Amino acid sequence: MDVHSYLFKNRFRKIFWPIHHHELGKFIPISGLMFCILFNQNILRILKDSILISEISAEVASFAKVYCVTPTAAIFVIIYAKLVNHLSFEKIYYYLISVFIGFFAIFAFILYPNINYFHMDATALDQIMSAHPHLKWYIALAGNWSYIIFYTLAELWPNIFYVLLFWQFANEITTTEEAKRFYTLFSLFGNSSLIFVGLLMMNLSSERTIMQYFIHVANSKVVLIQVSVFCVVIFALLSCLLVRFIGNNVMTNPTFYNRAKAPRSTKEKMSIMHSFSYIAKSKYLWLMLICSAAFGFAINLVEAVWKAKIKELYPTVNSYAEFNSLYILWTGVAIIVMTIISNNIMRSHSWFAAAVISPIIIMVTGIAFFLLVVFDHQILSFFDGAIIMTPLALAVSIGALQNILAKGSKYSIWDTSIQMLYIPLDDELKTKGKAAVDVVSSKIGKSSSGLIQSIIFTIFPAATFTSISPILMVIFTLVCISWIYAVRKVYFEYLKIV
After folding, report:
1. Does residue 370 contact residue 472 with C-beta atoms inside 8 Å?
2. CA distance 290 to 282
3. How many CB atoms lie within 10 A of CB 423?
4. What share of the chain is helix, strand, coil (3-state, %, to 5)?
5. Domain boundaries in the chain?
6. pLDDT per residue as tens digits for the range 359-369
7. Is 475 exposed, middle or buried (0-12, 13-18, 19+ CB in 10 A)?
8. What is the DSSP letter of 206?
9. Which superfamily, per CATH, for 20-257+271-497?
10. Does the predicted TM-score (pTM) go above 0.70?
11. 3-state secondary structure of 232
12. Which of the residues 173, 197, 276, 394 could staple to 389 if both were Cys, CB 3.0 to 4.6 A apart?
């Protein structure tokens, strides 16, 4: 091989495959773990929206995020801070996944097929809601309690198992130098699960394909939930096996894991109150919390309106799930493409240059979506027949494009960027601080957004997402600008540490 060919091959490998052969024993199982967690995450994402929004309404999701998801997330952080002091990561992972999978299985095979026995009668519930219009969404929460619990746990899955536990695990056994080469490829392989989930769920939810074999013996939406949850259980078990394999084979191998790179503190573990007091004094964590909360706040404002439009176009559980599956599939494609494009940004440019991409994409596409919803008829009249879609179908399509680009940039660039900020921190901030930021922050963002929406819907029972879109658009723009400012500030703090 001549010198030019060797240099070209070496440069090609550094750009597209910067993993050395001896690192595969570490890289492959961690990538597999990420794949399993994200596989389940995206099945649950499709199910939670399809069930809650189709069975109840899009508006009730705002109330669920404020009054159910966020309090549960806060309780989890307290429990997790206690568990960290007494249990190994492996045991914590097993205990938590058992709780989640246990409920999902009970819901799919006991509660959902017999929902009439466990929920209040639909007619009686509607009468109570009509008699108390200002409280109707709170009544809907209580009357449909199993849907709400399913939605709450499915909402918490990505923050607990992906953002917190997976990245804590990865940060523990990956050096800063390895992270620059590994993390974007983790994202590439892990997020390829979206394509598999999209194809699988499109077939399961479509009554024109697999479901036609079940319709004569069962309710197709029940079969959809049961088969989907069965897949979640299988991949949850696979993830447990991978955690065990990494613990026994990677973390015991000096080639893959050198504890000297990040020595653990030998001092006594902090109490919960002392830990939270210590975390609260960290300006670095506060800025990270603002960044994560801003994402949750901004994306929830757009998604709330978009999901209400989807229900108008696809009113049943199966049709909603089928559309969601197609959206998930294309999100996976977008993540892979963006990961390949952005693979060298982190290594060839500053951290800020990579991290600021997501808020800019989300702000631009989000404003475009809101303008379409608010001025839909004027826009269609302006183009005068050039657009053959109905205003509703156009809004759903543009909203899907916005979410695909937003989620694509978030999962390919933003997640890997934000996780690098934890690597130089001490153990207390890496575990309990990370739990506080990763689990609570995005829920604070979503719940703050949901709180605004829930207050409007409580005061004005006849309000809909379409009618309040102008207000949401202004709030969305201000939040995105604040997000970009926070990214800039946390970058300066990061430079001081490294």
Report:
1. yes
2. 13
3. 19
4. 85, 0, 15
5. 20-257+271-497
6. 998 999 999 89
7. middle
8. -
9. MFS general substrate transporter like domains (1.20.1250.20)
10. yes
11. helix
12. 394
